[in-house]
Amino acid sequence: MLGRAILPNSKNLFARGTSQPSRGLRKLHPSETADIVSDLAERDRPVVFRLLSKENAADTFEYLDLETQKSLLHGMGLDEVGPS
User: Burial letters for 52-75: b for 16+ Cβ neighbours within 10 Å, e otherwise?
Assistant: First the structure.
């Protein structure tokens, strides 16, 4: 999976607290971004998802399997779910 190939570098970037991964994520197709999100630990999924634009996040969400969608929504908290 693409996510597993990119993940080691992504984890290092997140650990440093930089928003640089958002640049790389913008270049990926939403299905590829979904693959990366799915491969992350549950606690890391909301962090990556928040880096996406609203449109890209919506497109990416559609490619996630149901369990990953549930995990992501739970990790984001109910106050962030729904129309803004």
Answer: beeebbebbbebbeeebbebbbeb
Instruction: Of 63, 55, 52, 59, give the one whose Cα is nearest residue 76.
Output: 52
Q: Give a yes or no: residue 82 inside a domain.
A: no
Per-residue pLDDT at 78: 61
Widest CA span in the chain = 34
Instruction: Give residue-wise pLDDT tens across range 21-71.
Output: 566 777 889 999 999 999 999 999 998 899 899 999 999 999 999 999 999
Q: What residues make up the domain containing 51? A: 2-75
* 80 located within any domain: no
